[in-house]
Design brief:
Number of strands: 15
Radius of gyration: 27 Å
Helix content: 25-40%
CATH class of the largest domain: Alpha Beta
CATH architecture of the largest domain: 3-Layer(aba) Sandwich
CATH superfamily of the largest domain: Gcn5-related N-acetyltransferase (GNAT)
CATH topology of the largest domain: Aminopeptidase
Structural class: alpha+beta
Distance between the termini: 77 Å
Shape: globular
Length: 340
């Protein structure tokens, strides 16, 4: 059997089951907030495609190439409101003893997944890789991914024993806040990041919008101007916090984070917070409040080839100049009637 990527089917259940423990999860946030075994995800989405609600695709490769066995699978999740997708799981991990040709497996699976994403009108595919994992980074680069940003993940094991009274006044997010939140992002993000993450006509993807377990979203407003934004997702193994604050209000970063922590209430689960490399003020504020750096990730993107759907033109025959069109039966009868 040739080793080419294809969509997951019921015959692939043993393959996914045997490899899921040796795979590489690439979505740390979902693994903490709403963990799900890859086989469960594959099965759920396999049956959901029957009612047209498939959101996460699983692709497998199983066969031989140049005398080597290639076995593996990839999972890619489409974003709800944008023509984009994320690579969230790959198996087996590079260097796994289960498959000595895992690099070839990754390249075949990534190429196939990105091709299928383009066929589904997904213009960009994103991924997050652990910084320093040179083998994984090289595998993604070989299929066209490029690094465009850096992200740090911080962890707070215990909430403060006595969270101070609310320091800032937060209110629930409303649709009218979109422009103000976009402004916060544009003030913080370098031009290169904006070009990657801002979709024409829709702007930046707000944290907590495109995920299945929706986040609690709050806004800090001063004089009818959005000055800060908080996205908080409560999960199984912990909570995930994302904060945006205006650069001119960086001295209020700690107060905004503390106000967000007060929303959690009593909890024994840790709090995680992801911060971009270009947000040093937030990094300092988190560290000052007791957060410890848990991971460092590189953000990658690949632009897909989206097929253009052209309308099918119904061409009409046009007679050549000087050539009379052949008379039809109805026209002959009409002519004879007139002569009679």
């Amino acid at each position: 059997m040739p080793a080419v990527g294809r969509a997951f089917g019921l015959r692939d259940v043993p393959l996914v089951y045997s490899l899921q423990r040796s795979g590489a999860p690439l979505d740390l946030e979902s693994a903490i907030v709403e963990p799900m075994r890859p086989l469960t995800t594959a099965m759920r989405n396999y049956f959901s495609q029957m009612v047209g609600q498939q959101r996460q695709m699983t692709y497998v490769v199983r066969g031989q190439r140049d005398g080597q066995k290639l076995r593996g699978f990839v999972q890619i999740r489409a974003r709800l409101t944008r023509p984009e997708a994320d690579i969230v799981f790959l198996a087996p991990s590079l260097g796994s003893r289960r498959n000595s040709a895992s690099r070839d497996v990754w390249e075949e699976l990534l190429s196939h997944a990105c091709q299928q994403a383009g066929m589904q009108q997904r213009q960009r595919v994103f991924a997050k890789l652990r910084a320093g994992d040179s083998d994984s980074i090289e595998a993604f680069r070989r299929v066209g991914f490029t690094i465009y940003a850096q992200e740090m993940v911080y962890r707070l094991d215990h909430l403060p024993a006595a969270v101070p009274p609310t320091l800032l006044s937060l209110r629930p997010y409303e649709t009218r806040d979109n422009w103000g939140i976009q402004r916060l992002f544009c003030h913080a993000a370098p031009r290169g990041v904006q070009q990657v993450e801002c979709q024409s006509g829709q702007g930046w993807a707000l944290p907590g919008v495109s995920l299945e377990r929706r986040a609690q979203r709050l806004v800090w407003e001063v004089a009818s101007e959005v000055r800060g934004y908080v996205s908080l997702r409560r999960g199984v193994h912990g909570h995930w916090l994302r904060v945006l604050i205006d650069h001119d209000d960086r001295e209020n970063a700690e107060a905004l984070i503390l106000t967000a922590l007060a929303q959690i209430g009593p909890s024994v689960r840790p709090v995680y917070s992801s911060v971009r490399g270009y947000e040093p003020d937030l990094q300092y504020a988190l560290q000052h409040l007791g957060f410890r750096q848990q991971a460092e990730q590189l953000l990658l993107v690949k632009t897909t080839v989206v097929p253009i759907k052209e309308p099918v033109l119904a061409w009409l025959p046009v007679p050549e100049r000087g050539v009379e069109a052949a008379p039809t039966t109805s026209r002959l009868h009409s002519s004879l009637d007139q002569q009679g």
